Structure formats: C-alpha cells, structure tokens
Amino acid sequence: MTPIRVLQVFTIMDRGGAESMIMNYYRKIDRSKIQFDFLVHRNKKAAYDDEIKALGGNIYKLPSINPFYPKSYYKKLRALFDAHNDYSIVHSHINTFSCFPLKIAREFNIPCRIAHAHIALDTFSLRTIIRNNVDVSEVLKHIIKLFLRRRINKYPTHYFSCGQKAGNWLFGNTSFERMNNAIDSEKFQYNSEIEKEYKEKFNLKESIVIGHIGRFDSQKNHSFLLNIFAQLLKKNPNSKLILIGEGPLKRKIENEAKNLAIYEDIFFLGVRDDIVELLQTMDVFVFPSIYEGLPVTLIEAQSSGTPILAADTISEEVKITDLIEFISLDKSPEFWAEKIMDIKKNNMPKADTKNLIIGNGYDIISNVNKLQDFYLQQNTNK
Q1: Cβ atoms within 10 A of the Cβ of 81, count?
Q2: C-beta of residue 281 within 8 angstroms of C-beta of residue 209
Q3: φ and ψ of 272, to 5 deg
Q4: What does the angle CA 114 – CA 63 – CA 110 come to, to the nearest 5 degrees?
Q5: Bridge partners, residue 5, by sequence
Q6: How far is residue 82 from each of residues 4, 62, 89, 250, 252, measured CA to CA in Å?
Q7: Which of 34, 41, 48, 42 is nearest to 89 (CA)?
C-alpha cells in the first residue's frame, strides 16, 4: 500500500509549539498509511529537518509570503503543485497566512484543504503590544494578521484549532474541529533522578530555578520576564533563570539582561533537544505571553509536574491540572516574583500528572489515531 502523502505547511520547522506538536503526531502516526511532507517558507536549515527526512518526509522550501505582492509566491507554489500533483490533503498551520497556500490548493482542486488555528490575537493583546513599546514592524505584522483574518474562510474545506479561543478568533462563527496539542505523557512524566542529575549538571542544587521555553519575539514578552527575575533576585539572590529558544529579539534581550545586571544569573540555552530534562530542573515555569493559542509547552510543563505562572491572556483551556496559576500582565513584576517565592516556600513535591494528561485528552496515542482516521477518510472521499 502506498501511503497517503499530506502536505503540512509551516513557516519553518524549528522547535516552536505548533512545529513540536506536529512532530509528536508524525513520530507516532502509521507511516505505512500516512506520510507527511512539509512546505516551509524559510531557506535555512531548521531544527527538525533531519528528523523529517529520516522519517521519510520531503521538505519543499519557498520564499517568505509577501502579503502585499503574493504573485511571485503564487507562481512558485503553482510550479510545486504542477511537479507534485499527488496531494489530496494540504494542512496549513500558518494561521491567517494560510489563505495564500490554500488559495492555490483550491485552484489545483486539492479536495481537502485544512486551515489550522494556533494563536488568538484580540484587540486587547494588540493594545498591550503597543503599550509595551514593541518595534513598529512587529505592530504592522499584527495589523496584517488582523486584516488577513477576513479572508481565511474563503479557501479551506476543513477548519482545525488547538483550542476554542484560537478557533473562535481565526474562524469566527465557522465551526471547527479540535486537534489537541498532544504530547507523549510517558516521556514527560516527572523523574526525581533526572531532576537531581540536571541540577547537579548546572550547579543549581541550592537555587530557586525558574524557566521559560519560547521563541525570542514580542509575543513571548521576555522583557517583562527579565523584570520579574530582577525582582526575584532581590528577594532571593540565589535564583537562576533558564531561557530556551532562539529568535530575532534574542540579542536585544541579552542586552537588557546586562543592563539590569542579571545576565550572569541567566542560562541562555538556545534550541535544545533535552526539553524533558530541563523541565524537570525548573522549580517554576513562568510564561507571561502577550497572546497565545493553547501552548504545547504548558502541556509539557504540566506533564513534568512543574508549577506554572502564566499570563491570563492565555486560554484557561490549557489548565488541565492544578499546577497553573493565571496572573494579569497588569500586575507588577514584583507581584509575579512574590508568587514565585510563595510556590517555593510551600515546597510541594512535584506531582505525577500522567493520568490527568491522558484523562483530559492530551496524550499522543489517542489523538494520533483520531487524526489518522480523519486523513484516511478524506482520501476515501476524494
């Protein structure tokens, strides 16, 4: 049997939330029946490229989409579909920009065209971005996303979302299917030996360790996180911050840390493949994003038993254990730091949350079977 090839559309296959989510599905899906290929919009090599190729997937690289002048992009995408005319399913994960590849997929009569919502950017979060002095180009990108949202319902045949909030934001009144940001709960289960090993490795045995995983861009609000950490150091000088990720604002954040005189207490670890172990190392996971959909990192952190302080801009759907507390971004960094101290003072042992992850539908096994059945059904219907 020749597997059905599904074209997954992303910006780049680095270790972001949506990218990690689809890789969780890709590793577990029956690749004798379903095979993934990837259309990306950056020319550089990405973190998951080698693994994708090892799993049997192809990677097609096109230039970035210019929303004002898409004709050049359309020409290249038409050439791609002319050369590879066996796709019956295109699954696009680039939010409002999905209207561009799905428009050409419709032109080529590809019968199953999926738009997948991963973020929710509402008017409040846009005001917050402006209030936080974000670069003008970043604000323009968000305005473009709000504009393109009007076109998103023109080209898909199916609508998926990571959660209710993201789906409502992107699709409005159009109904959509929920595709959970599922993880391998067995893999992320808390392990005290791993925690001990990694705290020794980074010389953190006596420290309060807070951590964050996310791309260095305006959405993730790293500047606010630095101010939280600066306040935490005033309360407990033996505190450390682990930052995992890359991105365009990394150098800016490093300079801000130096200006705050906290740089020496921060681990800038870049992109990592030992996320499981690093989550075990953190005493508190701090996530002050300006906007999100339903972050897979918060599912992973809960699976590892790590207490979480998250911005109340994030959908409460992500709260599948009692480990998360939501805090307003209007609260001061000192308030957030005091909350971290309260968690540390309580000194509760890390929880075994595996059954909660499974019970709430976020384990990969049941979810991958559902997605596989959907793809197979679409191929039968074509």
Answers
A1: 20
A2: yes
A3: -130, 155
A4: 30
A5: 35
A6: 18, 15, 15, 39, 43
A7: 34
Per-residue pLDDT in tens (0 to 9) along the chain, 382 residues: 799 999 999 999 998 889 999 999 999 999 999 999 999 999 999 999 999 999 999 999 999 999 899 999 999 999 999 999 999 999 999 999 999 999 999 999 999 999 999 988 765 455 555 555 555 666 676 677 777 788 899 999 999 999 999 999 999 999 999 999 999 988 999 999 999 999 999 999 889 999 999 999 888 999 999 999 999 999 999 999 999 999 999 999 999 999 999 999 999 999 998 999 999 999 999 999 988 888 999 999 999 999 999 999 998 999 999 999 999 999 999 999 999 999 998 877 788 899 999 999 999 998 999 999 999 999 766 5
Cα torsion for 190, 196, 199, 202, to the nearest 10°? -120
331-364 core/surface letters (b: 16 or more CB in 10 A; e: else): eebeebbebbbebbeeeeebbebbebbbebebbb
Give me the sign of the Cα torsion angle 226, 231, 234, 239: negative
Q: Give the pLDDT confidence score for residue 346 in this predicted structure.
A: 85
Six token digits for residue 164: 């209710």
Alpha-carbon distance of 123 to 35, in angstroms, equals 39
At 60, the amino acid letter reads: Y
| Domains of the chain, earliest start first | 4-182+363-381 (3.40.50.2000), 185-359 (3.40.50.2000)
Helices first, then strands: H and E counts in the chain: 16, 15
Exposure on the CB side of residue 244, measured as CA atoms within 13 A: 23
Say how far apart CA 38 and CA 368 lie, in whole Å. Answer: 18
282-296 as b/e, with b when 16 or more CB fall inside 10 Å? bbbbbbbbbbbbbbb
Q: In what order do the strands lie in the sheet with 284-287?
A: 266-270, 239-244, 208-213, 284-287, 308-311, 324-327
What's the distance, Cα to Cα, between the start and end of the chain in Å?
A: 17
**286 phi/psi in degrees, rounded to 5:** -115, 130
